[in-house]
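Re: your question from the hallway

Yes, I did run it. Sequences:
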Amino acid sequence: DQQVKQNSPSLSVQEGRISILNCDYTNSMFDYFLWYKKYPAEGPTFLISISSIKDKNEDGRFTVFLNKSAKHLSLHIVPSQPGDSAVYFCAASAILPGKLIFGTGTRLQVFP
Amino acid sequence: SQTIHQWPATLVQPVGSPLSLECTVEGTSNPNLYWYRQAAGRGLQLLFYSVGIGQISSEVPQNLSASRPQDRQFILSSKKLLLSDSGFYLCAWGRQNNQPQHFGDGTRLSIL
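Structure:
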């Protein structure tokens, strides 16, 4: 049972435009959500997170939106840069001690 | 600042051979520690987690085991590797709920 889903395996965006990565979840007990960025042969790097008591969190070019009623979150990257090209994972947590459930990832390619 | 180290970076092992992957964390005490696996084309799957020395919780039945002999050391082991054990193994540490986990650079394990 896939509790966290990223239905788009890949996304291609032109440099300077907005990148929108989507994630859906099924478990209403999830109360903390994260986005990670991963380059090949490296571990994931934490990008941004949001608690279920909020609907938006912003950090520089990265904004995460949470729609609890739809069980949906998204990551917006504005403006997109070639260095943003990587695989992005969303993750959710609800259970002690902070176990994360990951989606399958979306590969973002930002072209000039 | 906190750092996490995993080794080796890559490993090629024959079927039936033993395995030992090591992970150490520096710059923090009493962290929660995690082992994840990323199989080809899939998301990160939590294998084991530990909230303290000698305490191990297993998430999925499998051919692997974990141990935490010291506060900041986490070891992933197997007595006899299977072909299905191939994958990218990641160690992570975290502090508590609603805090991000931070990952090492991973070990690429290939079973022949």
